[in-house]
Amino acid sequence: MEAMNLLLLAGGLLVFVSLLAGVYSARLGLSFLLVFLLAGMLAGVDGPGGVNFDSPLLSAWVGNVALAMILLEGGLNTRMSTFKRGFRPAVLLATVGVAITAGIVGAVAVWALKVEWKHGLLLGAIVASTDAAAVFSLLRQAGIRLNERVSATLEMESGLNDPMAVFLVLALIAMIKTDAGLSHGLMLLAKQAAFGVAVGWLGGAAIAWLLRKMPLGTSHGGLISLLILSGGLTLFAIAGLAQGSGFLAMYLYGLRVRARAEEAAHAAATALDGFAWAAQATMFLLLGLLVTPHDMLRAASQTVTIAAALMFVARPLAVVLCLAPLRFPWRQSLFIGWVGLRGAVPIVLALFPLLERVPGTARFFDVAFAVVLASLLLQGSTLSWLARKLGMVEPPDEPPPGEGSMQGRLVLDGDLPLAEVLTFFQLPLPEHDGVTLAEWLVAELARDVAEGDGFDWHGARFTVKEFQDDRIARVGITLAPRKR
To answer: Which CATH number, 3.30.420.10, 3.40.920.10, 3.30.465.10, 3.40.50.720, labels domain 408-479?
Structure first.
């Protein structure tokens, strides 16, 4: 018991201090994820902690499950309007863009690391995917709202390019180990995509149907979140056993549940967000523990060359080539090209060749880790500045012009159409106005809703007044006089 308590003490303190440091580092434009990586490195073999952690297999297991949970949460948070608006550019960036990025970085790696072309392409595929969670967390911390088309593209791309990167990594590992040809890689790509789409789409529809039939309301958010998570992990395993992409299945599963059981998705949002944060924290701490900093320093010059090629050449060029046919303005293309932050996926993918004992890839984990650090430090710290410089920041919503002002307190039926209520009180409409007043409150609060909960909307206070059969029946509105 003493050993267990000491382990819990060390682990709890490490996470707690990392979270506190992350809150304050966000003011400098640094990602929470960077703080967890550095905390793991400080606790590791070269840091003051001196922990000699050397288990790539455990790290890969934890990393895969954590990434699956992150993609599920991302899918559940993606609205169908975002999906439709960002689908075409995101698919191009997640397929052609990833391939172009991997090719350019691979060519640089062949020259810098003196490896064969297959090994160079493997490293390029490892670092080719982006992490929108890091991007949007930094934007939220800075209070920045992006253009809807840019935001939808970045959000969708991050959910779709992870499976593509996994496809390429697995195909190149097979080509190196078995000397298989290009046709084998294309066959693997087709199989993973087909089974991943089928499992995620059909499984999402089935579980959404089940959630709609079950007697669960907004007060059962914790239970609903566990149902959604356990169902998703089941589908992730089924897709993997069928040799499909579990990552693609998880993302599509989240999208499908959000589209067909939106009330359940909103009720589970807060708990699932907590699960995703816990998964990210655990994964990044383990990856930080696994790395050996003095090994990274031995190849510092080659790593800097590869990171520079990725950030300044490969990613921007891939974005320009993919978005040019869709007539994206050059400012938007430049911004999307720069904010392709790297996160956990490249580091986890770098473990695959180690576990498969692919010859000549021992350095890839250290290189991928250093590339992620460089991306989070350089691109993350300049993201807010660049958004303002390029005019990507959307102004806050202003209330519609009106001569009169209203004030007072009212209680309304929760089933009233939202658009009619907000129009009557001269308040701006949200993105989705074809819902009821009660549904809007559930969507905005995005957690277990209780009587007395509320939020402000352009000078008006909306409050939950009464529940009936686990649904919001009465909504209170407090209106303050508007300045003219």
So the answer is: 3.30.465.10
